[in-house]
Amino acid sequence: MKVLFLSITSFLLTACLAMAQAPTVTASPNTVFAGADGKFEAAADTALVQFNITGQADTAKEAYDAVSKQAEQVRQIMRNNGIDPKTANISSYSIQPMYDWKTAKRKLVGYQATTNVSVKLKDFLKIGPITQQLADTAVSESQSISYTLDNMDEAKTKAVEDAYRRARAAADSVAHAANRSVGELSYASVDTFENIRPVPIMARSMAMKAEAAPAPTEEFTPQTVNVTAHVNALFTLK
Fold this sequence. Notes:
By secondary structure, the protein is α+β, with helices and mostly antiparallel strands. The chain has helices spanning 15-19, 60-80, 127-136, 152-177, 204-209; strands at 31-42, 46-57, 89-100, 107-121, 140-148, 182-195, 198-203, 225-237.
């Protein structure tokens, strides 16, 4: 009886895949083990615009009111661009005291209220106007944009399918060299990784200096989204 054992590892550009290691598998007689990487690449269909709203005042109540006023400005900006404010998500909200540390005894000088907001956009043409209007109204201290896929699960599935095809092809090659054929799949493990590339943060002061200039993202094409997968598979041999 012959035992065939194969371990193939192909390194892709994604750093995470370099860390993926084949699990410990006890190879039974008449089996072949193969590991391979696969990928799926597609143009981004969703832009995630993230920004914060910050207000400072002498009291916590006044800081809260300041942020509430700015939040209403954000809602109006969204309405002006045909976006329902309800689609925006708030990831955090906080009110913190601010102190003057110049003296030995710290002195309370006010309060700062901050909330982080994210908006998903399907229409990339709206990114420029929204980020510019947020900067013009001095609502947001910083903004960032990242591009992704709306259906990431489907992309991961396609990456896994590609990895499996490569693993199966490798197993077929070894089996053919030994005048055997690959049978049923008896074991498999899967790891997937997504590569989301954020656009560098655009500070408020930078945006306000160029009133007539085009938006930082205008006429540029978002980078594609890459999803990679690693599959380890154990097949029986005929």
